[in-house]
Amino acid sequence: QAQLVESGGGLVQAGGSLRLSCVASGRAFTDYMGWFRQAPGKEREFVAAIDWDGVITMYADFVEDRFTISRVNARNTVYLQMNGLKPEDTAVYYCNSNPPTNSWGQGTQVTVSS
């Protein structure tokens, strides 16, 4: 059964850092994995993606070299290291295949205070 479990969110001040983790089970752990986020009142948007070998990574323009996506295949885990957080980064963060399937985890809340 495919399952995605995100963790690592929290409340931080602007300029702070968080490391998000996503453990994917079954068919949910695919060659191309990504992080997405959804802010209140907005549609879910792409944040970052990574290929199986970790060689190819992609980031949304708003990341501006502040985030780093990585993965450990032996642990079925994808990470998102977020530095230089801004209040506009406040959102629920999700992982999924890239492009995403219709099956989402519960996400992890990231709140950045100014």
Describe the structure.
- With 114 residues, the protein is mainly β.
- It has strands at residues 3-7, 10-13, 18-25, 33-38, 45-50, 57-59, 67-72, 77-82, 91-97, 108-113.
- The strands form two sheets. A six-stranded mixed sheet has the order 2-10-9-4-5-6, with no helix packed on it. Strands 1-3-8-7 form a four-stranded antiparallel sheet, with no helix packed on it.
- It is globular.
Order of helices and strands: EEEEEEEEEE
Roughly how many Å is the radius of gyration?
13 Å
Helix share, percent: under 10%
Order the strands across the largest sheet as they lie in space.
2-10-9-4-5-6
Termini distance?
A: 40 Å
What is the percentage of strand-forming residues?
Answer: over 45%
Mean pLDDT: 96
Q: Tell me the number of strands.
A: 10
Overall morphology: globular
**Main sheet characteristics:** 6 strands, mixed
Unreliable parts: none
Structural class of the secondary structure composition?
mainly beta
**H/I helix tally:** 0
List keywords for this structure.
114 residues, mainly beta, 6-stranded mixed β-sheet, 4-stranded antiparallel β-sheet, 10 strands
